[in-house]
């Protein structure tokens, strides 16, 4: 049985990762939790507190502006028991019905 579902992080694609990180640190009083290389040769900075964070991502390419909705890369949900969540309907069938994607890599990285 799933006792709690919460947002762990939201991933945003940004054009200027340093500016975006500084904005959220100043605006929300958050701190940089992690920074490093990301998929596709990009870079990520995680800005937040001990409970939740924004994963800021850049592909290091020049972008004038992103189309509306394009900066949202993904939302990460954390559950107490991933296997239980999948059994009660938070699994792949429900995700596919909402026209969302879950990759095997996401499944393998999920904390247990």
SSE blueprint:
Elements: E1 5-13, H1 17-28, E2 31-37, E3 43-48, E4 53-58, E5 72-79, H2 82-90, H3 92-97, H4 104-109
Parallel strand pairs: 1-4
Antiparallel strand pairs: 1-5, 2-3, 3-4
General description of the model:
- Helix content is about 30%, strand content about 30%.
- The chain has about 110 residues and is α+β, with helices and mostly antiparallel strands.
- It has 2 domains: about 70 residues, 2,3-Dihydroxybiphenyl 1,2-Dioxygenase, domain 1 (Roll), CATH 3.10.180.10; about 30 residues, no CATH class.
- A 5-stranded mixed beta sheet has the order 2-3-4-1-5, covered by helices on one side.
- Strand 3 and strand 4 form a beta hairpin.
- The radius of gyration is 15 Å and the shape is globular.
| Alpha-beta content class | alpha+beta
Helix content: 25-40%
Which blocks of ≥5 consecutive residues have pLDDT under 50?
A: 104-112
CATH homologous superfamily placement of the largest domain: 2,3-Dihydroxybiphenyl 1,2-Dioxygenase, domain 1
Q: Major sheet, described briefly? A: 5 strands, mixed
CATH architecture of the largest domain: Roll
Order of strands, main sheet, comes to 2-3-4-1-5
What labels would you give this structure?
112 residues, alpha+beta, 2,3-Dihydroxybiphenyl 1,2-Dioxygenase, domain 1, disordered C terminus
Summarize the structure.
With 112 residues, the protein is α+β, with helices and mostly antiparallel strands. Helix content is 29%, strand content 32%.
């Amino acid at each position: 049985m799933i006792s709690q579902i919460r947002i762990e992080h939201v991933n945003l694609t940004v054009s200027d990762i340093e500016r975006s990180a500084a904005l959220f640190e100043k605006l929300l009083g958050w701190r940089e939790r992690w920074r490093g290389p990301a998929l596709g040769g990009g870079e990520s900075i995680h800005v937040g507190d001990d409970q939740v964070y924004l994963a800021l991502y850049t592909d290091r390419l020049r972008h004038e502006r992103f189309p509306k909705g394009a900066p949202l890369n993904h939302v990460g949900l954390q559950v107490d028991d991933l296997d239980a969540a999948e059994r009660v309907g938070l699994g792949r069938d429900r995700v596919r019905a909402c026209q969302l994607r879950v990759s095997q890599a996401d499944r393998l990285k999920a904390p247990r």
